[in-house]
Structure formats: structure tokens, C-alpha cells
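Section handout, structural biology tutorial.
Before the tutorial, make sure you can parse a SMILES string by hand: atoms, branches in parentheses, ring closures as digits. In the record below the ligand is zinc ion, and the chain has 214 residues. In the tutorial you will relate the predicted C-alpha cells back to the input. Do not try to memorize them.
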Amino acid sequence: MKVSLLFLCLSFILTSGCGKQNEGNSETNFDRVVLSQGADTDTGDLPSLALTLSTRLVLLNFLEDEEEKMDQAGELIRLVVGTQEFRRRILNHTFEGRKIFVDNGGLTNQEIYQTILDGAERLSPNRNNRIDVQVELYYGSTNVIGYTYPNSSRIWVNRKYFSIYTPAGVAQNLFHEWLHKLGFNHAATWSDSRDYSVPYAVGNIVGDIGQDFL
Ligand SMILES: [Zn+2]
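Predicted structure of the complex:
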């Protein structure tokens, strides 16, 4: 059986930046409800799990302002998942004329949506409706935005990009990496079809909708 050992998630924005690192960990929980303008907040007949998804991030090597940005990204994810548009865009995602994702693990769009709402990471497979990950910031001069390993609940995020991303961009990257934790994969090198894989396509959807909340 072929096992991919490393998910490298490459950049789509190329600008550099760097900050000092600090020591220590922090844990953040996002339970706030943010009223926003400019976003479609009609929840209609969404499944209740779409409105209750929570985020539990353990942050490593984050400065205070970096923690704040990651907090905002986590909050954006909660808000995005609670929209009709998020569900609609996943259920209607199309590749080559069919309503599917590339590298979908044999799941339909509806099953992928449900998998996201369940929040059962492969390494912690209880359906707790929560995003559970450790996030470690590092600096690398490469064009890698972030990476993770299938056998780790940690994701590594490149400060070079994190420092210049908006909270919506951070949310996009975080969601992409978290989808790996749910077991979704993508091709190691770029191709037209890779953008239709679950991590890339759903990450992009999160980033798009997230901008509406800023
Ligand atoms: Zn990836």
C-alpha cells in the first residue's frame, strides 16, 4: 500500500515576511457569536451541526498578535460553515461535468459535507463536531504555506505566508490542512485537477466566503 508521508501545501501568494518566535503554547476555544455585515447569515434549514461546529486549536510558537489572527480565522471558519452558501457550494461542486470532488475518498459531495460537520479526525475519530488541531508556526523561505503528516494531529504553518494573509486567507489554509486530518488527500504536484480536490476546493470555498465576513 502506498502511503503519502507528507502533505505539502504550496503557496498561491508569493510575498515574504517574518516575525520573532516566542516559546510556549496556548489553547483557544471559539464560542463567540459575531454579528457581521455583508455576509448571508440566513441559516434556513441547515443541519444543526452546521451551526454548532466549534474550533479547538492548540497554538505553538505564536506571538500575541499572531494568536489574535488565528482566533479570527477560527471564528471565520465557524461563521462560514454556518452559511447556506458553504453547504450549497460543496453539494454543487462539479468536476468535468459531474457533481464530485477529485480525490474524494469514494464519498459523494453530501457525504463530504457531513464528514466536515462530524469533525472526526482520523487520529481522534469521535464525531465531536469540532476542529481539533495543533498549529505550529515556523519560518521557511520556501513556497510551502503549510504541511502536515498523516500520523500527526499537528499542522505546521509557514509564518512567511501567515504574516501577510488576511484572516480569511489563514482560515482557508487552516481548513485545507484540517481536511487532511479528516483523511482527504491531493496530488503532490500541481495539476488542473488538483484544485478540485477536497482540501484545495473546500479550502478555497472557506476563503471566498470568509472574505464576506471581513
Ligand atoms: Zn494539502
